[in-house]
Amino acid sequence: MSTQPHEYAVADPETALKYAIQHIQGDRVQIVEGVIEQTVPTWDHENVADLIREQLGPSLRALGCRAGSGNLDLPGSSNWYVPDLAVVPKELAKGAGALLPDQTLLVVEVTSESNGDTDRTVKRRRYAEYGAPLYLLIDRQERACTLFAQPGRLGYTKQDGPHPFGTPVPLPEPFELTIDTTEF
């Protein structure tokens, strides 16, 4: 019996890395700029995401959409995100594995002390680069909300905010509703 380690040749490290994290049992795991991160949201964190989901409810039904925290792949990069909330057409939510940011209507990230800078800078840039039309950043450390729109390769070209918690945040088409942030 040999005690020498096995060597595995991987022709595509991006695919191998993304495959591996999808098979970690029981954990929500994402890859941010090549670093594997376990996501363990607190109840306070989840509460904010749920408050947004509740407010989106009537629009989701009218638009034929679903909201959840499913996987978003960023092909050609070492990124695989698990957003706090993403709104997608219901046809795409059925039986889908990972979706692409440009298949969403809205992506929401709620900051934590451990990932605030990632949500503020890295994810904002990457979501824009990969065509997520709207990115709502709920910054719990700064106690403010910012909506980013009009994505491009160099980032979002439109920014509404930061708005302090308690200030209504309007969502544009196709939502045409205002998010109440008083309970955030």
Structure in words:
Strands 3-6-7-8-9-10 form a six-stranded mixed β-sheet, sandwiched between helices. A two-stranded antiparallel ribbon has the order 1-2. Strands 4-5 form a two-stranded antiparallel ribbon. It has helices at 13-22, 43-63, 90-93, 116-129; strands spanning 28-32, 35-39, 65-68, 72-74, 79-81, 85-89, 106-110, 134-139, 144-149, 158-164, 169-171, 177-179. Strand 1 (28-32) and strand 2 (35-39) form a beta hairpin. It has a single domain (13-179), classed as tt1808, chain A (Alpha-Beta Complex), CATH 3.90.1570. Helices cover 27% and strands 30% of the residues. It starts with 12 loop residues before the first helix and ends in a 5-residue tail after the last strand. The protein has four helices and twelve strands. The longest helix is centred in the N-terminal third of the chain and has 21 residues, at 43-63. The mean pLDDT is 88. The chain has 184 residues and is an alpha+beta fold.
Give a quick precis of the structure.
The protein has 184 residues and is of the alpha+beta class.
Secondary structure elements and pairings:
Layout: H1 13-22, E1 28-32, E2 35-39, H2 43-63, E3 65-68, E4 72-74, E5 79-81, E6 85-89, H3 90-93, E7 106-110, H4 116-129, E8 134-139, E9 144-149, E10 158-164, E11 169-171, E12 177-179
Parallel strand pairs: 7-8
Antiparallel strand pairs: 1-2, 3-6, 4-5, 6-7, 8-9, 9-10, 11-12
